[in-house]
Sequence to fold (1016 residues):
Amino acid sequence: MIRNYIRTALRNLWKNRFMSFVNILGLSVGISAALVIWMIVHYDLSFDRFHQNGDRMYRIVSRLDFHQMIINTSGVPIPLIEALRSQSAGIEETAFLYQYSPNVKIGERKFGVLEKTTFAEPEYFNVVEYKWLYGSPVVLKNPLQAVLTEERAEQYFPGTPLAEVIGREVKYDDSISVSVAGIVQSLKGRTDFDFQEFVSMQTVRSDLGMQRMRGWDSWNNFNSSINVILRLRPGVAPEKIDAELAALIKPHTDKDSENKYSLQPLREIHLDPGIDFFGQRQANLPVLYKLGALVVFLLLLGGINFVNLQTAQAGERAKEIGIRKSLGSSKSSVVAQFLGESFVMATFAAIVSILLVPAILAAFRNFIPEGVTIAMFAEWQVFLFIPALVLVVGLLAGIYPAFVLARFQPVKVLKNQVYGINSKARLRQVLTVSQFSIALALIMATIIVSEQTKYVNRKDLGFAKDARLFVKAPGFRATTDKMKDQLEAVPEIEMISQAYSPPSFSGTSSTTMSFGSNGEIKDAMVEMKYIDEKYVPLYGIKIAAGRNLLPADTIHEVLVNESFAKAAGFKTPEDAVGQLIAINGKKHPVVGVVADFHTKGMQSRIPPLALSTDELRKTMLHVALRKDADVPRALDKIKAAWDASFPDDDFKPTFVDEALARFYDSEVKLRQLLGWATGIAIFISCLGLLGLAIYATRQRTKEIGIRKVLGASVGSIVVLFSKDVTKLVCIAAFIASGVAWYAMDKWLTGFAYHIHIPWWVFPSAAATALLLALATVAAQALKAAMVNPVQSLKSE
Amino acid sequence: MIQLRNISKHYPVGFGKHEILKNVDMVIHEGEFVSIMGPSGSGKSTLLHILGLLEEPSEGEYLFQGELVHKMNDKKRTQLHRGAIGFVFQAYHLIDELTVYENIETPLLYKNMPSSERKSRVADILDRFNMVAKKDLFPNQLSGGQQQLVGIARAIVAEPSVIFADEPTGNLHSDQAKSIMELFAELNKKDGITIVQVTHSDVNAGYGNRVVEIMDGRIK
Ligand SMILES: Nc1ncnc2c1ncn2[C@@H]1O[C@H](COP(=O)(O)OP(=O)(O)OP(=O)(O)O)[C@@H](O)[C@H]1O
Ligand SMILES: [Mg+2]
Fold:
C-alpha cells in the first residue's frame, strides 16, 4: 500500500512540477534556516559537557553594587582564594587562573602579543583534565616554568620534535624568561578552556614588582582576568559555598555593601551573556531566540504555500480520492496518503536544505560562531534533527489539506460537484494575507531600522570625528613624550593631545563627586574624562561658558558638561563657572562648562560628565590630521615615529569614526539580517502567489475565452484577475502597519535619541509589495488573456 | 440481501426540488443477476450509486445484508467497499496516476492481501481480459473501451459478494460485450456472486434472471 501511495505521490509531484518546485523551494528555505539555527543552538549548548565530574565544577562570580552602578564579574580577589583554600571544607579542588597577554619573544623572533596564555598552578590540572605528552602538573610548582600545548609548541618552534622543545626559553614582555617544562594536548571537544600556554603561578608569587602591579593582596580587586574554577565534594550544595564566600569577604568590605557572591555551574558559563570567560565568545540567547522566531516565520511562509497550493489542487485530486473511497479506502487512509505526500515533499525540501546549508553558513559568517561548520552534520543531535524537522514540517503543512481531501464524498467528486473546494478559497485568502502581512511587516521594519541607522550616523555628536585617530601608548611616559615631540614635526598633523579615552568610548570611568550649591549632587558616581589642554580644541568641543583647562599634572581645574551643570542646579552654564566641585572628597574649581557631546552611542542619554587633567591616566595619544592631509602618508609617518619609540609593540591606531561605528554593530547586523529575511519572505510569498495565479488562470481559461469572444479586452481581463490580489495586499498592509509600528516603536525606545517613525514607511512598503504581487499575477493573467479564445474553448 | 423500502432521491433546484427517484421498493436476493433498464436520465445510475453505498437516499430505508445502511458508520461502509461490493462506473473512473496493473491491484491493497497472492490474482485477471501487454500503460494511454475493461477487472478482482455495474459494456464491441456478459453469468452461477447491472441492451439483459424497468424515477 505504501508503495502505491508513494507512486501516486511521486507521479503527482512530477505532473505538477512547477507547484512541487514552489512548495519544495518554499519549505527548504525555512528548513535550512531552522537547520542552521539549530546547529548554532546545539553548538552553544554543547560547550564543556565532557569534563569528568563536570556537574561538580563551578566558577565564582560576583555582583558588585557600587550604588550607582552594578558590575557583574568573574574576577576574584586573591586573598579570598587563599582563604577559601584553607577554610572551606566543601571544596575538593580550587583552580585559580590568571590570564596573561604577554609580548612574546623567542631568541630574536618576535611573536607580538599572544592571547590564550594564563598563569596556573598544578591544581588546575586536577580540575580540568589534560593529556600530558611531556612533563606533569608538578612542573608548575616552580617559578619561571611554562607548559605549552602541542599547537603552541609548533608555533614557537616549528618543526622541532616535542622532546627537544622541553627546556627551551620563551621571553615575555622583554623581562621574564621562562623555560618550557611540559607539553599537553589541547582539550578535545567543544570548550571555553582553550588555553595554549600555562605559566607557573609561582612566577608571579616570587616577583614582588609583578604582584604590586596587579593588586595582588587587595580584597577589593575584582580583576576579571583572575578567575576561580572549583570542584565541590560530592553532595555539597553550591549555596553553602555562596554563604561561605560572603562570610569570608564581609570583614574586608564596606558594611553596607550589597555585593553578592555565588557559584556558577560549569554548564552555564558559556550561556552567561553578562560575564564572559577570559574574553571568549559567549552564547547570546536573546539573539538565538530572535533568530528562532525568524525561523518560525520562514517555516510558516513555506507551510502556507504548501497549504494554499495543496487545497487549490484539491479539485484535481478529488477524483482519485473518490475512486479510492469507492474501492474501500477509509478516511484515515486518505489522510495517511496525503500526509505521506507532504512528507515526501518535506523530505525533498530537507535534501535541498542540506545542500543550501554551506551557502548559508558562508553568507552569514558574521552572525555564525566560527565553530559551526558542515562537519557538525556528523553529530547525531544535528543529524537526527533533519528527520525530526521533516516529520514536524510534513505534519504541520500536510494535516489540513489531508483532512480537507479526506472529507470529500465519493460520488460528489466523481460527478464533479465538490462543494467546499471553492469555499476553501476564503481560507487561501486568509493565508495569503498572513503571508503578505509577515513580508510587509519585515519590509517596514527594515526601512525603519535603516532610517534610524541613518539618523544616528548623521546626528551632530557635539565633537569632530573625521580625520581623527587615537592609539594606546604602551606605558613609559618619557618615550611617549618623545614620540609626541617627533609627531609635532609631521606637517600632516594639525594637533596632538595626550588623554585617556576619545569623546565617545565604550569604556567608562566614574568617580565619586559632589557638586551644586545646595548639595544637588552628593557623593554620586559621575563619569570622568582625563584630558589635557589640547583635547577640547582637538575634538572641536564647544565651550559654553568659562574657559578651557590649563595644563596640570593632577586633577586641578575641572570642566563639566551642560548636563552636569543643569543636574547640579545651575540655571545657566555661566552660573556653574567658578563653583567648587568635590572629586573623591577634594575640592576643585570648575573653570568652564562644555556643550554636551555624546559619550556613547545614541542608545544612551548624554550623562553628567566632568573633565580634568591627570598625568598618570593620559595613556592614549589623540591625533587630528589636517583637512587636506594625505591620510595613508600621514599614517606612515606616525607609524615610523611609533616604531622608533616602541619597536616591540604593533602600531594599532583607531580612527574615531570607525570606533563610533562599533556602537552600532548590532544595529548594522540587525539591518542585514532583516534585509535577508525580507527578501526571502517576499520571494516565498510571491512564489506562492504565482502558484495560485497559475491555478486560477488554468481553471478560468474557459471563462477567459468566453469573455474574449464576448468582446473583453486583454486589459480588462488582467484587471479582473488583479482585483483580488490588490484587495488582499491592502488588507495585509493594514495589519502589517499595526504590527510593525508597535514592534519598531518598542525597538526605538532602546535608543535615547531616535527618529519618529515616518508615516511614508507604511504606504511605500505597501506599494512595493503590491507592485511585486501584481507583477506576479498580471504576468499569468496576461498570458492567459493573450491566448486565442478558440483554442482555449476547444480544449475544454 | 438488498432491500429498498420507499426510497426517494431529490436534488434542490432553484426554489423547488428535482425528484429523481420516487418511492422505489425493491428486493434483490443473494445470487440473483438483475438488469436495470430504462431511458437516459431516468435515474438508473443514481439508483446504482445508492445501492453501492456511494450516495445517500433523501428518504426511505435501505437494508444491505439485513443491516440499515443509514445507521452504518464510515468504518462499516469502508469495510463493505473493501470486501462485499465491487463497482463498475459508467465513466470508468480509473486513477490517472496509476498504471493498469496498479489500478487493478489497488482494491487488493486495501484488503491487505499478501503480495504473492496479489500478484497472482492480478496476473490472472490481466490474462483473462487479454490486457497483459497493456499492464504498464496509464489510463490516458488506453482507448475508452480498454479503460472500461480495466474498470470491470478492478471491480471483480477482489471477489466481492455483489457487483454493481453501470453500463459495463457501453463502449465495447458486441463480441467483447458477449464475453463480459458470459464472465458475469459464470461468476453469478459458479461463485454465487450477486450481480446488478445497468444496461440499454436487451441482449445483455438476457444474461440475467430478472429485469427491473425504471421510468422517470419509478419502478414499473
Ligand atoms: N447533482 C445533481 N443535481 C441535479 N440533478 C441531477 C444531479 N445528478 C443527477 N441529476 C439528474 O438526475 C437524473 C438521473 O440521472 P442518472 O445519472 O441517474 O440517469 P441515468 O438513468 O443513469 O441516465 P443515462 O442512461 O444517461 O446514464 C438526470 O435527469 C440528471 O439530470
Ligand atoms: Mg447512467
In short: Residues 285-326 of chain A form the longest helix (42 residues).
